[in-house]
Design goal:
- The complex is a heterodimer of chains A (about 260) and B (about 325).
- Chain A is an alpha/beta fold and about 260 residues long.
- Chain A has one domain: Rossmann fold.
- Chain A is built from 10 helices and 10 strands.
- In chain A, the strands form 2 sheets. A 6-stranded mixed β-sheet of chain A has the order 6-7-8-3-9-10, sandwiched between helices.
- In chain A, β1 (about 10-20) and β2 form a beta hairpin.
- Helix content of chain B is about 70%, strand content about 0%.
- In chain B, a hairpin with a 6-residue loop joins β1 (about 90) and β2 (about 95-100).
- Chain B is built from 11 helices and 2 strands; from the N terminus they run ααββααααααααα.
- Chain B folds into 2 domains: about 30-75; about 100-324, MetI-like (MetI-like fold), CATH 1.10.3720.10.
- Chain B is globular, with a radius of gyration of 26 Å.
- Chain B has helices spanning about 30-75, 80-85, 100-130, 135-150, 155-170, 180-205, 205-215, 220-250, 250-260, 275-280, 290-324; strands at about 90, 95-100.
- Chain B starts with about 30 loop residues before the first helix and ends with a helix.
- Classes of the chains: A alpha/beta (about 260), B mainly alpha (about 325).
- The interface of A and B includes residues 56, 100, 104, 113 and 166 of A.
């Protein structure tokens, strides 16, 4: 549960994901450096979201989905069927395109994960809620109405609440699947600021359709196409001097 | 984009739009336009006529039952208080009495008990079909439960009489017939209602909520208990209330296993009766316009009012689930 100072980076090795017969992700090996933001870009259906979801075994929930290969996090291959996904998902938070707050109060939304993991003490929960909301810059906006329904918040606030909810279970990695694509520009800017702030403590993997966003928030960028990892490099290199033609075509808007 | 000449196309689901020429260029020769207008008018007139007929039928049924059912109170000297709280039902006696409390008690206790038995079964079946094994649930469990809805109530009563009543008679003190037997039979009959509505509610739950819970490291059971069930609670209750309403109105199957003794029983295994049973049993023996006959209409009126109440409760629950 504690945030460890010497977190190892995590990496994948020959990771493939199949939906039935169709191979959606093809033998991908990627390293994710500690406390950096990695952006996954590529046209729709290129496998980037599927890849992201396999990093915390969320594909388990999809009937017919099958993973091959390895994902190593803290000296543990999480693709091993014996992995306790409950513990795994505690280490790896996830945020989706559409904010999905629970139909409960703001406080309960944040306290939820902590309660799952057995924290019952009211003071400890209060502290966790405040800390998570402060980290996501929501505290000042909602501190007077913690008991109101989370559904009354704006879309951008809801999304930050969902990030706060993930942060509250103290993960070391955050996965974000197009976290700002359903939000207005102001809310998007806030999410991006938040990502820059969260980077100090968490390793972040973000899927985005917005190439400007990838350029703004990420340290490294991976370009996916048809299930393959075409190119993975420093974000600056990818956007100024990509080594593959298809990467250049995509980022300059010639397809996708 | 609509051209200025085209009429704004209405919701394609409404029947009046069915024969219209959607998407056709707007300016038409006068003859065709008139033909289209006639088609529109015909479709519209047909739907309005059907709706009108339906409203007239519903309205006349209510008025008829109310006029008959109110007669004993208005002009035949029976008090509402006696009907609702009296314990003695003796309509043909020299000094007739119309206490319907035992029937009310029987109807409420059998339907509520049936709901208490069927609700956990139905909701668990729905969880199984949506959360645990959707494939098996869809191919085997769902058709099996839907089949229950198609079995005639006389068959339920017959099975209850030849299986459940003897079982209860051997296991518990009493004759076997009674509220428990009625409730067991009713619980199987209302299982499809509760299961179907619960399944729909669980299926329409946004997938994001479940994923959000799993992604926080929740187990499936924690997700079901703390996210899925609380979020769908109003809809689940809607199913239960509709089940109670169905049980409340069921006559034949209950009548076959409840024993039909017009008093409030001391145990669940003692003869009792319900509003519906007493109506079906007595109506053949009364003459139209007699006090006895009108008193049966009063019982029917009570059933009708209870149905209104159930519909009202369901409406309230639906509103709540929309605002949740």
């Amino acid at each position: 549960m504690s945030t460890v100072a010497t977190r190892a980076a995590f990496y994948t090795k020959d990771l493939s994901v199949y939906y039935g017969e169709k191979q959606a992700v093809k033998k991908i090996g990627m390293e994710f450096p500690d406390r950096e933001v990695v952006a996954l870009i590529g046209p729709s259906g290129c496998g980037k979201s599927t890849f992201l979801r396999s990093l915390n075994r969320m594909n388990d929930l999809i009937p017919g989905a099958r993973i091959e290969g390895e994902v190593w996090i803290n000296d543990q291959n999480i693709c091993d069927p014996r992995t306790d996904v409950v513990q795994l998902r505690q280490q790896i938070g996830m945020v989706w395109q559409r904010p999905n707050p629970f139909h409960k109060s703001i406080y309960e939304n944040i306290a939820f994960g902590a309660r799952y993991h057995g924290i019952k003490d009211k003071k400890a929960l209060d502290a966790i809620v405040e800390q998570a909301l402060r980290k996501t810059a929501l505290w000042d906006e909602v501190k007077d109405r913690l008991n109101q329904s989370a559904l009354a918040l704006s879309g951008g606030q809801q999304q930050r609440l969902c990030i706060a909810r993930s942060v509250a279970v103290r993960p070391s990695i955050l996965l974000m699947d197009e976290p700002a694509s359903a939000l207005d520009p102001v809310s998007t800017a806030k999410i991006e600021e938040l990502i820059a702030e969260l980077k100090k403590e968490y390793t972040i993997v973000i899927v985005t359709h917005n190439m400007h966003q990838a350029a703004r928030v990420s340290d490294r960028t991976a370009f996916f196409f048809l299930g393959d990892l075409v190119e993975y490099d420093d974000t600056r290199t990818i956007f100024t001097n990509p080594s593959r033609k298809s990467t250049d075509d995509y980022i300059s808007g010639r397809f996708g | 984009m609509n051209l200025p000449e085209t009429r704004p196309s209405a919701d394609p689901a409404t029947p009046r739009n069915a024969p219209a020429t959607a998407g056709a260029p707007a300016p038409k020769p006068a003859g065709k336009a008139a033909k289209h207008r006639l088609e529109e008018w015909r479709g519209q007139a047909f739907v309005y006529l059907c709706v009108l007929l339906l409203v007239v039928i519903i309205f006349s049924i209510v008025v008829f039952i109310a006029s008959r059912g109110l007669t004993p109170f208005v002009s035949q000297g029976v008090s509402v208080k006696e009907m609702l709280f009296g314990l003695e039902w003796a309509p043909e006696a020299d000094h007739p009495m119309f206490g319907a409390l035992p029937f009310l008690f029987g109807s409420f206790s059998t339907s509520l008990l049936a709901a208490i038995i069927a609700a956990p079964l139905g909701i668990c079946a729905a969880l199984f079909m949506t959360e645990m094994m959707p494939k098996l649930g869809k191919t085997i469990l769902q058709p099996a439960i839907e089949l229950l809805a198609g079995i005639p109530s006389v068959v339920y009563g017959f099975v209850g009489l030849s299986v459940i009543v003897p079982f209860l008679r051997h296991t518990f003190p009493g004759q076997g017939v009674g509220i428990m037997a009625g409730a067991i039979v009713l619980s199987v009959m209302i299982l499809p209602t509760i299961t179907t509505i619960a399944t729909d509610a669980l299926r329409s739950l946004p997938a994001g909520l479940k994923e959000g819970s799993y992604a926080l490291g929740a187990t499936r059971w924690q997700t079901i208990a703390r996210i899925i069930l609380p979020t769908t609670l109003p809809a689940l209750l809607t199913g239960v209330v509709l089940g109670i309403a169905r049980a409340f109105g069921e006559a034949l199957a209950v009548q076959m296993v409840i024993g039909n003794a017009p008093h409030i029983p001391h145990s669940l295994f003692e003869s009792a009766t319900t509003l519906t049973s007493i109506i079906t049993l007595s109506m053949g023996n009364t003459t139209t316009g007699s006090l006895h006959n009108n008193a049966l209409w009063s019982l029917a009126l009570i059933l009708l009012l209870m149905t209104f109440l159930f519909v009202f409760i369901v409406r309230m629950l639906e509103r709540r689930s929309k605002h949740a």
